[in-house]
Amino acid sequence: MAAMTAPRRLVLASASPARLGLLRQAGFRPEVIVSGVDEDALTAATPAALALVLAEAKAAVVAALPEAAGALVIGCDSVLELDGEALGKPADAEEATARWKSMRGRAGVLRTGHSLTDTTTGRTVSRTASTTVRFGEPTDAEIAAYVASGEPLHVAGAFTLDGRSAPFVESIEGDPGNVIGLSLPLLRHLLGELGISVTDLWA
């Protein structure tokens, strides 16, 4: 009987527990190597372009490390586009409160850049996924309680679908995983562009 070939190593260039959880739930066994990229030092013309630039920077830094040799490296970064502005993680509770008061009753677009590098070939493929998010109208008291939980300080746009803010999101149009931090369908397409089947990476 032929021995089974071990799946390629998949390295997540992100400290996001949500992204790690999505990959694990989908059958992957990713390793985590945090890039340490200074996100505030990078700029781009549009929120979608910024998300992609950040994702590419994270993937490139990690792919160049000796410990990532032979691996597939996926870098991701998310921003919320509202009024043409890219909103990342709020700096403090005051900003998170103001952000939620401006978002309630409105819709924004969550942009997540994805960059995948095959370190064995040096090839990189990148794309940004977009999902429209319609926010509910939480009261001032609900916003204050949510900000006091600390959650919005750690997530792009000051909200997430897999946490305490879920009741404040009325609906989405697009991939929910993209809002949480990583689009699995897009990852499948990027792997395909590199000639790799997503099923070959299942642990």
Topology:
Elements (H helix, E strand, L loop, with lengths): L9 E3 L4 H9 L5 E2 L14 H17 L8 E11 L2 E3 L5 H11 L3 E12 L4 E13 L4 H9 L20 E5 L2 H5 L3 H10 L10
Parallel strand pairs: 1-2, 1-3
Antiparallel strand pairs: 3-4, 3-5, 5-6, 6-7
Helix pairs in contact: 3-4
Largest sheet data: 7 strands, mixed
**Distance from first to last alpha carbon:** 20 Å
Average pLDDT, all residues: 96
Shape: elongated
Radius of gyration: 18 Å
Number of helices: 6
> Strand-residue fraction?
15-25%
* Beta strand count: 7
SS-based class: alpha/beta
Q: Are there runs of 5+ residues with pLDDT below 50, and where?
A: none
The secondary-structure element order is EHEHEEHEEHEHH
Kindly state the percentage of residues in helix.
Answer: 25-40%
What key phrases describe this protein's structure?
7-stranded mixed β-sheet; elongated; 203 residues; alpha/beta; 30% helix
Mind explaining what this structure looks like?
It is a single chain. With 203 residues, the protein is an alpha/beta fold. The protein contains six helices and seven strands. Strands 1, 2, 3, 4, 5, 6 and 7 form a seven-stranded mixed beta sheet that branches. Helix 1 (17-25) links the parallel strand 1 and strand 2 (31-32). Helix 3 (93-103) runs antiparallel to helix 4 (140-148).
Quick description:
With 203 residues, the protein is α/β, with parallel strands linked by helices.
